């Protein structure tokens, strides 16, 4: 089942302030890698359900597959929000339990709860566990439009601010993932330069 166009455009729009967007959508592709080739096993999308975040729903879904430990799998997510701290912890733990599985997460927006320190720490731990995390760019939205959306063969047209917001969010994510000692080194360098 493909996602309705309006649902995608509303939930994946990479606004810097996205008030009222309480649901998280996760589009996924699961591939098995065999040497130089890969075989697509499944794709689709999920959204959070009452009391259960979408990331947890996906982890339950994939854990039920009984993955072959002798094969390599690559999972790619495109999410409307970055994971909360608790979900990031669960994903990191899941990745440590499945060393034959790689996860790439492309996020439309960064999620921050009231405690603004928790989510960045969750993203750092997730990155440390081996997940590749990035902000969605035009090509990612284009791919999602053509893969997961009932687009009635209409071409994807980005919205005003798509590129600028992607750049802004990418910089913000880069600052989050930068190890703290590097940030301190940069601050010291700026002080020395008088900046």
From TrEMBL:
Reaction equation(s) it catalyzes: a 2'-deoxycytidine in single-stranded DNA + H2O + H(+) = a 2'-deoxyuridine in single-stranded DNA + NH4(+)
Residues annotated as domain CMP/dCMP-type deaminase: 20-126
Entry EC number(s): 3.5.4.38
Keyword terms of this UniProt record: Cytoplasm, Hydrolase, Metal-binding, mRNA processing, Nucleus, Phosphoprotein, Ubl conjugation, Zinc
Single GO BP term: cytidine to uridine editing
Ubl conjugation recorded as keyword: yes
Highest taxon, organism lineage: Eukaryota
Protein name listed in UniProt: Single-stranded DNA cytosine deaminase
Lineage: Eukaryota, Metazoa, Chordata, Craniata, Vertebrata
């Amino acid at each position: 089942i493909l996602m309705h166009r309006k649902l995608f455009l509303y939930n994946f729009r990479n606004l810097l302030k996205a008030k009222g967007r309480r649901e998280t959508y996760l589009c996924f592709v699961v591939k098995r890698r065999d040497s130089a080739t890969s075989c697509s096993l499944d794709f689709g999308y999920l959204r959070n359900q009452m009391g259960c975040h979408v990331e947890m729903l996906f982890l339950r879904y994939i854990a039920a597959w009984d993955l072959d430990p002798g094969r390599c799998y690559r999972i790619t997510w495109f999410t409307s929000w970055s994971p909360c701290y608790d979900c990031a912890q669960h994903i990191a733990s899941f990745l440590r339990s499945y060393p034959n599985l790689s996860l790439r997460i492309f996020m439309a927006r960064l999620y921050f709860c009231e405690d603004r320190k928790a989510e960045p720490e969750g993203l750092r731990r997730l990155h440390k566990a081996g997940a590749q995390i990035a902000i969605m760019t035009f090509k990612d939205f284009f791919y999602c439009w053509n893969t997961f959306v009932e687009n009635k063969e209409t071409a994807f047209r980005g919205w005003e601010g798509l590129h600028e917001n992607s750049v802004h969010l990418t910089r913000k994510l880069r600052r989050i993932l930068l190890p703290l000692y590097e940030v301190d080194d940069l601050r010291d360098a700026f002080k020395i330069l008088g900046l």
